[in-house]
């Protein structure tokens, strides 16, 4: 029996080595990377459309009070953030089907997400009471965020189950982030170009009203056009939502047809047996994860605060109300084109160094934009630099997260299939940061005296927009960079983790192969 067991153990070791070499040779097919990357488009298109336009939509199109809008934006994001860990745990508890464990969640949540997104931008009545208006948009905001979490949490976890090694995963993450930045560009272009013409027309009307040389008859004519323009603006927002909803459906279809889940080292893609609180405690007590999450939280908070106030800043503080949608497209185009650059720098210098370079670029950009008024050429140049930095925020933290999950698996080999919890908590802090950024911004504008639909605001509102666009995000960004400085997984540590993972997977395959022939010969 011993001789036979040694013989079979040797065969299994050879087989495991052969499988490892085959995995290195094949990696992740390009078609699978592309299909996986396309699946990230719906989340970015919808979230950035909300990020850039939801605040100005509620304030200037729906004519909602700033206090009600701040509650919707903050509580909506808070609800979205709270549901993420719960959905992550539900995904972890679900069992594997013939379509996989994660992909069914993506497919079945899609129709509900599409419908709720369209209803979020629909205005049911021309004139609504504050209570009805608040309830309508708050309910649809919470419903959409819930269904999008059911899509995005399993989708982001899918990165760990594409096959290949860590370099293949980083490559797939690069494709995904490049496609997500492009989706951000596409979403802003669709939303911006469809609704931007009506915002530009409103800016022209405001200019006429503020121009003392314009005859009174022209003032009356411009005011008579305001109601019609408002109706057209509301229809334009619904049209943009329908287009984005259709793209959402097509991207989900591509993921379903083009991505098959693959087992990862020390993972079974099966239901976990840990209670919810126990699993959450293990995740949030993992030190590298905590430092990465808080670095990502503050950096994301900085970018989202600047992003959420960009439209209002351009419209009311920088006299660029007719051009902000074009600046958004320039910014996101630069972000899309610079993603391969950051992927190359990442490989050369390492992830930790690269993220410092990318985030630091954002600081002088915000300072220059906040100090200028009505200077389109300078705004274009700064938008390009801001887009380059935004690309680094998209790529680097999401590329670092799989390293943290691998580090946890090496240190806790008995705890398997917790990847959805890691990713859901990561998404939680990102969304929570966005909710805090938008909620605080809108609340500050409320106390500064912001009045919906007014063309010219007082000096306190202008000063608040300038502070919310540059000084506050810069302080938050510096805090995030400090957290990234203490992030412990360097390139050397990352290589050690991958070596330990391969060893653990090798020993596991050997032990399974060894005991099976021993049992046969015992009989």
Task: Give a short overview.
Belongs to the major facilitator superfamily. The protein has 523 residues and is an all-alpha fold.
Overview of this structure, please?
This protein is mostly helical and 523 residues long. The chain has 18 helices and no strands. It has helices spanning 2-26, 30-38, 41-61, 66-93, 103-120, 130-157, 166-210, 216-258, 276-284, 287-317, 324-349, 351-360, 362-371, 376-411, 419-448, 459-469, 471-485, 491-522. Helix 5 runs antiparallel to helix 8. Residues 1-25, 216-224 and 514-523 have low confidence and may be disordered.
Global outline = globular
Cα Rg: 25 Å
Query: Helical content, roughly?
Result: over 70%
Q: How would you state the average pLDDT, rounded? A: 79
Which H/E pattern describes the elements? Answer: HHHHHHHHHHHHHHHHHH
Using DSSP, what is the number of strands? 0
The class by helix and strand makeup works out as: mainly alpha
Strand count, sense and barrel status of the largest sheet are: none
Uncertain stretches of 5 or more adjacent residues: 1-25, 216-224, 514-523
First CA to last CA: what distance? Answer: 11 Å
Percent of residues in beta strands? Answer: under 5%
What is the count of helical runs? 18
Furnish the topology, listing elements before pairings:
Blueprint: H1 2-26, H2 30-38, H3 41-61, H4 66-93, H5 103-120, H6 130-157, H7 166-210, H8 216-258, H9 276-284, H10 287-317, H11 324-349, H12 351-360, H13 362-371, H14 376-411, H15 419-448, H16 459-469, H17 471-485, H18 491-522
